[in-house]
Batch of 2 targets.
Target 1
Amino acid sequence: MNFRTPRRVALLLAMTAVSVSLVAAACGGDDDDDDAADTATATTTSTAATTTTGTATQVASPITISGVWARATTNDVSAAYMMIKNTGVQDRLVSATADVSPKVQIHEVITEGNTSKMQEIPGGLVIPANASVELKPGGYHIMLMDLPTKKLDVGQKVEIDLVFEKAGKIHVTAEVKQGGGMDMGSGGMSGTGTATSGHGMGTATASATGTAMR
Amino acid sequence: MLRKTLAAALCAVAVLSAAACNSGDDDASDSTDPTASPTTTADRFRGGIVTPPFDKPDIVLTDTDGNPFDLRKETEGELTLLYIGYTHCPDICPTHMLEVADAMEQLGAEDAAKLNVVFITADPARDTPEVMRKWLDHFSTSFIGLTGTEEQINSVHDQLHMAHPTFTDLGDGNYAVSHAALVLAYTEDNVAPLAFPNGFELENWVHDLNKLIDEGWEQ
Ligand SMILES: [Cu+2]
């Protein structure tokens, strides 16, 4: 029996399998190479979303932000997450500041093969017209660095100013959470679960499905 | 053999994508108790199947007490989850650690005790034993943290066929580190036929860990 060559080939295949699987697992999370599909999905979901909000309150800014939270930490780095919904033309989240951190960046996560890394998004995070973009664990996040307190406790509030290219400055308050599947109220694929249970609930669920599955 | 492996590889893709993207649909809705042990239906692992399985790195690192830790010897014969990350990672690493900790809590103390969780740092420059202990305790005091020299950490990556860590400057002395995108699940035999990707949901963790503990690995 000669295992050498087949084993090497098999390993190669395994690596391919794992990396391909990763893309599938993340459901296309953050890579932008499928922009057309993204926009298509996002537009569809936001049509429904607009109808829902239309009956409620008229919001001045086309950008609305929900589900803001930051991760509890025991050292000097953390991340904040949220759902950004845009009912207007394409905008861009260019920067952010936070009361707990002197150094804040907009980050993305890149997964190549079996490894991942995070980095600042060059030029900021594009928020396409009539679309929702979710910042969630494993993907886009507001990176909080050099926290002088060297910790964030569950229940604490973090004040964040987001600066958009067109919408200008938007203030949000993040609640500090542990961040696991147990206390993730919104976002992620748990949103998909809610949607299928047939509550017909509003916009966050609809757009969460759109972004999670795109 | 080649065709067989290819089939297995393709199968892994199918299984994983189905599990990660449709999580919650079938299982959550028709099960009244989400913590109930796996049902008797054709119930497969939801993690990625690794063919051939990853070997366990043959290496002696340093644990959070500063003592030598022979990875194979210390974890042989026990189910072991292995992850490589770094403590200044605010996103993926704590997400993985928290999901594992939450899943183990749902498994209950008796089952959780059958599982080692080993965290190897990709950033030995910042991750001293003390730094790692404090960070891991945030998730579980039972998690094992290992550090080593740059050469040792590189060797771990080589043995797992992973690229060496790369460092991205974030300014003002901050930097990001590339690291494993997977948590590897080692059976009692020192091989990892299962790997859990980023975005693997809590219920999937509970499902697969339950299955691994109760039934062991069989394909
Ligand atoms: Cu980051």
Note: Residues 1-58 of chain A form one domain.
Target 2
Amino acid sequence: MFDEKDLILEARHVTRRFPAAGGRSLIACNDVNLKMYRGKTLGLVGESGCGKSTFMRFLVWLDTPSEGEIIYRGMDITKLKGRKLWEMRQHIQMVFQDPSTSFNPKMRIRDIVCEPLLNYGRIHASEKDAKARELLEMVELPGDFADRYPHNMSGGQRQRVAIARALALEPEIIIMDEATSALDVSVQETIIELITRLQREKNITIGFICHNLGLIQSFAHQIAVMYLGNIVEVMPGEGMADVCCHPYSRALLDAVFDTKMDFSKKIEPIQGEPPSPLNIPAGCPFADRCPHCQDRCLRERPVLKPVGPDHEVACHRFAKGANG
Amino acid sequence: MALLELRHVDISYGNRVTVKDCDLTLEEGEICSIVGESGSGKTTVIRAVLGLIAGGGRVTAGEILYEGRSLLDLSPREWRALRGHDISMIFQDSGAMMNQTRRIGSCFVEYIRTHENVSKKEAWEKGEDMLARMRLPDPDRIMRSYPFQLSGGQRQRVGIAMGMTYQPKLLLADEPTSALDVTTQAQIVRQMMELRDEYGTAIIIVTHDIGVASYMADRVVVMKDGVIEDQGTREHVLYETDNPYTRKLMEAVPSVGGKRYV
Ligand SMILES: Nc1ncnc2c1ncn2[C@@H]1O[C@H](COP(=O)(O)OP(=O)(O)OP(=O)(O)O)[C@@H](O)[C@H]1O
Ligand SMILES: Nc1ncnc2c1ncn2[C@@H]1O[C@H](COP(=O)(O)OP(=O)(O)O)[C@@H](O)[C@H]1O
Ligand code: SF4
Ligand SMILES: [Mg+2]
Ligand SMILES: [Mg+2]
């Protein structure tokens, strides 16, 4: 399904350690290897605090990994500085979770959506009105909204403005961190319809962070499951429920309340919480909550191994009998 | 007699009627979910039941009856006796409601001692026992922690534990799991269901997760623009209703193996 010639960005052995009290270190991302493909969506799922945002923030230069490289346009973008960095930034943009706090409340929508274009000298101040209108219409908002302030809009409308602003520079990659979590289902659906349409039209690559596997599987081409800073499974989005096999991914899937579920069945969520990222266990990070844990899991860390087309799992249960 | 009954209730903020002609009945041990878009008046309705509408909002028409008795003309003293004891509320982020400068244990002990004439030691033990029942690991450590030292899910379970101390007959929960991830949400949903099964607690839960609403509820209420648009069993709202708004809402719910947008 994924053609290596469409590979647009690749993270190699990316690790992030944060210094913690007592000279210890907190490992937020541990040896992450991921690939993003042109015009496709990579969904990143996992419990809160597992390191999803930490990883995606590297791609927009909000943070730098402690180790590893991120290759984009033939360069390791984690090492960029100065003019080169400034130029590269145009191509990767980000949309945040909370549309009510990500804008300056004193700026009009016109100035919010045109700001990046003016920064990069792509338009003249005199073209602002026309451009703002065009961008708002692209995200299916009335052009007149250009005169409004952010607080005069609903959460869903503000999130459309955030998308319009992120797309203004026509980036190749757009990162969305829980971009629909604060919205109700009907608004969420219209946003997903919007971004998938824009993706088709402009061949944009999307990185989408979400903790709801039910939502992400409805539009991601590729899904990566993260646990305690480790990628434990990478699989295709389509038909995900049939192939997904890591015990943690299954647990995430079982925790989704679906309107088509069996309502008479008692839900059996995994108990407890992930261990502290300050004390990552030596063996499998999921071992203390896993119903299939064996001696080997406590000693030896499983690594990602192919188990099917575009499908990799890090679990000792699937280490043998790999067919890919 | 129903446990709770709202009859033709209007609720206004200032001069604007925000919730109009709301009719709702809840039997003992029944679970009712309220769904609907942001700003439709869900929080306003359940806060009215507890006599705690924010920002000067008030009930301007109709009646709210609890065990046949009107809640609208209770004295502040009668309210205090009812709240926490008969009726409890869980908020979206229990952590934000807690005093950040005090340890969980100290708040919990105080809470228990306003409802019951017991020693500090007894109150502490009772609190710890409630935390253990909410399956919080290491209740002693939690009692000695400050709210900011706990995860969102842990704080939420502390909130539920407090709300459940006196096994209220009615639990009002406003988006209790919306700030949590799916695994923690599933744990908390399961705990609330167990409360009903073990103690017969009736629950009104406001949530924007239609899956959670359907799973938990005997009855689902759909609100729009301050009005109850539709209500019925989950089969009614999911499959049978002719109400166009409910249908639109249900169709927007993503489903595993369902509609794909790409
Ligand atoms: N203190 C207040 N003063 C004035 N208007 C208010 C106040 N609180 C709420 N409202 C208005 O009342 C309406 C209903 O608000 P409410 O908080 O009950 O909505 P909700 O259904 O709970 O929404 P959400 O899903 O966003 O929590 C909204 O239009 C809101 O703006
Ligand atoms: N600037 C920071 N300093 C120290 N620890 C951090 C920092 N940012 C994130 N962390 C820690 O790294 C882990 C992963 O966090 P994050 O990437 O925000 O998780 P997610 O986005 O998956 O919810 C958490 O344990 C978090 O507390
Ligand atoms: S490696 Fe072992 S502990 Fe880890 S997920 Fe697989 S079976 Fe469970
Ligand atoms: Mg995050
Ligand atoms: Mg509300």
Note: Chain A has ten helices and twelve strands.
